[in-house]
Structure formats: C-alpha cells, structure tokens
Amino acid sequence: MSDLTPPKAEKKDHFTTHHGIERNDPYHWLRDENWQQVMREPEVLDKEIRAYLEAENEFFEAHMANSADLREQIYNEIRGRIKEDDSSVPFKHDDYAYFTRTLEGQQYPQVCRSDRDGGNETVLLDMNKEAGDGYFRSGGASHSPDHKLLAWSADRNGSEYFTIFVRDLATGDELEDQIKSTTGSVTWAADSKSFFYTVQDDNHRPHKVFHHALGDDPAKDKLIYEEPDSGFFLGVGKTNSGNYVLIDSHDHETSEVRFIDAHKLGEPKLIAARQNGHEYHVEEAHGQFYIHTNYDGAEDYKLVTAPVADPDIENWEDLVPHRPGVLLKGYFLKSRYLVRKEEFEGLPRIIVRTLDSGEEEEISFKEEAYTLSVAGGYEFDNDEIRYFYSSPTTPPQVFDYKIDSKERTLRKTQEIPSGHNPEDYVTRRLFATAPDGEQVPVTILHRADFKPDGTAPLMLYGYGSYGMSMGAGFSISTLSLVDRGMVYAIAHIRGGMEKGYKWYTAGKKHNKKNTFSDFIAAGEMLVEQGYTAKGNIAAMGGSAGGMLMGAVANQAPDLFGSIIALVPFVDVLNTMLDDTLPLTPPEWPEWGNPITSKEDYDYIASYSPYDNIEAKDYPAIFVMAGLTDPRVTYWEPAKWVARLRDMKTDANPLIFKTHMGAGHAGMSGRFEKIKETALAYAFALQTTKGAK
C-alpha cells in the first residue's frame, strides 16, 4: 500500500487561552461553525471540510481494497449465523401478545401482535417499508393501553432527532399527530387519549417534557416541565404498575424525579430535591414508592420505600440495605414481588423477593463468565418474569419463570443456522494486576484446541466509562476472529461498574488514567500468560472506548499491533471547554470542568488523546466516524487523524472513514452493520500475525 498517498489536512492557527495557558489548535477549522444545521441537513457541510473528509474516505477505500475477499468471507460467516426469518418470544398484554419479527433479506424488524395465546398475527409496523433506501433508525414503538393506537418514531439522518407518529391499528393509517425534534420515546396516559414526550433543543439536550392530546396541534402542547440546568437531561417514563408517569432529571451523578398520576394527570410533584451526587430511581406498588438510591453513603445502592402520599426523603425506610461490594443494578415490581438484579465480583444474579413475607430466592448460573438480564413484561398482576442468559460460548436463551410454582420454561435458544458447538470453545475469567495493585477482570474466549504459546493474535476490547459494565455474552461476530485462531478478550476496566460503584469512581474525573493503565495491564498479562505476544494485539473500542484507544496508543504503542477506534471521543479537552456543544455540560461530572477548574484543565490535558500525540511510532490505526453524530462530533476523529498523520514517524497504515449520512450508531440496517464489523475485523486480522 506504499503507493497510496494519504490526505494531508491544512494547518490554520487557532489560538485560545484558558487559565493563562495559550494553546494553538491548527485543525480547529474542521469544526463547521454551522454544525447544528449540519446535524439536521448534512448537505450544508462546508465545502472545504467535505472535500477533506471525502479525500479520507477515498484513501480508506483504496487502502482496504485488498481486503475485499476477506471482508466478504467474514460478512457471509456472520450473516450465516443469523436466523434471518425469526421472531422474538411474545410478551402478553390483556387480549394480545406483542413481538418483533425479522424476515429473510430484510434489514429492519416488524412490530407484530397476535391473540394472547397465538393466532391472528398482524403486522403493526414494518420498518422496512418506512425506511426506504435511506438511513433509518427506530426510536421505539409503544402501543396505547387500550391497544387501539401505536406511537412510533424514526430518525432519518443519524442526528438522533426523532419524529413521533401515531398509527390507528384498526385502519393502519397515520393520524395527523406528528411531533419533531424529540428523543423518540412516548409515555401514554392511562386513558389512551394522550401521551408525554421529551423534546431536544438545538444543542441536542432533552430539556422539555410536553403533554400531547391526540388531535391537538403539537405547537400548542402543554409544557409539563422544563429543566433549567444545562447540565441535566430529561427523560419520561412510567412505573411498571402503570399508575404514575415519571419525569427524571439527571446528569451522570445526580438525579431528581417528579411524578404525575397517569389516571388523573395534573401537575408533576417532586419526590426528593436534587442533591449533588445523589442518584435515585422510582417504582410503585399499592401506594408505596420503591426507590433505588445511593443516599446516605449507600455507594452500591439500596432500596427504600416511601408513601406516595408523602414521598419526601425524611419518610424513606430501608427495605434492601446497602451491602458494600454487592452492586444493586436495577429492579422492577410485580403486584406481589420485587425483582432486582445484582452484581457481585463482576457476575450478575437475579433476586426475587415476596413483598408480603420478605422471603427471597436467587437465580444465577455457574459459568465463569456470562450475562443475565430480566424483564417483567407488560402485565403487573401476575407472577411471571422473563430472563435472558448467554455466555461467550452459549447462544442467548430466553426463560419464562413462574415465581409461585418455581416453574422454569426455556422459551427460545438463539438458532445459529451455520452451526455452533459450544464445546469447540472455552471461556475463562482471568485477572490482571494494575500498577496500583487492583485486580482487573478479563474475560477471554478461544478455541478449545488453542495453545497458550504466544503465537496467536488477540483482540482486546474495552470501554471503561459512565459506569457501564461490559457483559460477557455471546457474540455471533467474534466467532469469525476466534475461528481463525485469534483470542478474543474483554478488559473489565475501571470506569465501569463490574466490581461495584467504587470501580466506577476509580475510573472517572481525576482517576481517569486508571482506565488506561488497567487496559494496558490486561494486555501485558495476556502476553505474560502466553495468550498472545507484544505487538500482536488488536485493541478495539468505541465512543468513550475510542478515547481509551487514543490514550493507550499514546501511552503504550508498542504493545499493540493495531488500534480500532469507532466514533472515538479523542478531543476531550477542547470538547469539555466548549459549553455550546450538545453533551458538554452534562459531561462535566464525568470528566471535570476545565472552564472553571485549572486542576481539571491540567488533568484532562495530561491524557486527552488529541493533545498528547507525539513524534513517534504508532500502531496501525483504523478510525470510523459519523457526520451527523451528536455524541462524538465528526471533527474529533477528523482532527485526531490529521494530527497523527502530521506527527507519527512510522509507515503503519492510518485509515479514516466518515459516514456522510449516519451518526453515532453507524450505518442503519442489520446487514449494513455486519459490513462495518467485517471491515474492522479484516483490518485487525491484516495488522496482526498468526491468524489462520
């Protein structure tokens, strides 16, 4: 590929001063000053910026041309593991059962329903017909409580501004009610005649909740609540009982909830006023609120109760006390039961509690690593729950569980049409020792005939931000790497919550560098134990995980054979200094506020990938971005690539692709996403050694 000449971005001085420190950002010009309009209308992008991005796209395609056969093989393998004509297990609701279906050759699912026990199947919404030939992303579909209407939403350019539609399920016709610039979700009032929704401002911040009565002009919808703090987002939902609409104001470490009677409507009432660092979530049963909270030092959360009539924090009473090291992740209520999900030592479990007696039972599994989730369904007054299980070797399974009788029914195991034998693979949970002595969990998957002699390539995936735990579940795509002799590993690094809330706080703000050193320690441990060799690791991460990729590329470039950074958050300092950007104010609790704090400024500047590029050798690097991405704006990866091209001293490939009509989630459509995966995997295989 040495005959290819990569694009070279022009440098244009752009000086800024903060805390008495002057900086020059020569690639600032790649940020279109009209970026808000670009999010909605990509065609208005500045011509000079477009020319540069398209030149990079041409270089990307030229460089990857020699991988066409490999990409096609991987694409066909992954697609061959998908049962294209498939349906989800229906959830029952009154006289009906609701489910989704995918059809052979079709990109998008259908939303369907049948009679409660089967028969008379009807397609309520066919997303393939709605998508046409362009970008399409569903914001969800929600049927009204009386089952006569379906509210659904769509984003048609990747900017995540969703338009809400309402469909008459008797005729299939859309009502005139159309609402633009929303987050996409709809919460129905109990009478099925109105719903609540959240709108986004020009900075892409969900900041207002409205109430819409069917048939009314949306321009006259009643404003229910407006969030005054630019650092907070709004969300709207409903308790599982269906009795209360909940309006949630939150950033990454503080929340505040208001409630409205879903039957009587009226003005929202506050549960507990926001306190910095206090997070809480609300459910309801029989006139009691059940509140998931970290109040009063409950770092790993506890459950308390409070009367709906007077839910002030002074009336909170402990139900499930705080237990350090046992992370209470989520919960829901049935009429007679409380179902919660916990994590202990990085593994999930489900606890079912009888409300009257307080008796509890545990649902867990014995594999070294697995994922487990649970759902209560639409119906509040029954004793059935549904849980979902998978591991790196076990395809997803769906179980229905009757709490009273303890009867468990396997409803579905994901079919792998091309075949899958779990005994051909091995899953292990290892631990890497971080520089400060912390033990970092690492989940690995490899072929059963693998030998740890240091000759195999390895893909190491990581994220490590926002308290997001990386589940060790089944992946139909990673088998294409493992079957070629590559080891696949997930580093459960600090910044997630795999080992409790402390694991999160130990990887945020002024502890952020632990995230990077944990990932490097995981790679070094895998080398020491013979799973791979130094320089033969393909590291992969996206969004905040893309920031991780940029940081470790700067800090330990010789450990990796390649870096795959998808929509990478790499221009951390400049973004956190710009409070006009969509996500900056709500992000300050996660990263720090370098505008007001020199300490935060200095710390972010010390690791921000864009600001720490040096004149040295870097691994091969693959970068992907979306022009209409409101979360990681396209110019972050563009600037990062431009500076890397200018400064790196190696001849390793650096390739960069911008989707000119897509956003943070990449291309829409399940098969188009497989093509993206095949691109990244082909690059990983080409830039490491030892794959078959």
From TrEMBL:
Keywords: Hydrolase, Protease, Serine protease
Stated family: Belongs to the peptidase S9A family.
Matching InterPro entries: AB_hydrolase_fold, Pept_S9_AS, Pept_S9A_N, Peptidase_S9_cat, Peptidase_S9A, Serine_Peptidase_S9A
Full protein name: S9 family peptidase
The organism's place on the tree of life at top rank: Bacteria
The keyword Hydrolase is assigned to this record: yes
Tagged with keyword Chaperone: no
Domain Peptidase S9A N-terminal residue range list: 7-413
PANTHER family for this protein: PROLYL ENDOPEPTIDASE-LIKE, PROTEASE FAMILY S9A OLIGOPEPTIDASE
Residue ranges occupied by any Peptidase S9 prolyl oligopeptidase catalytic domain in the UniProt entry: 474-689
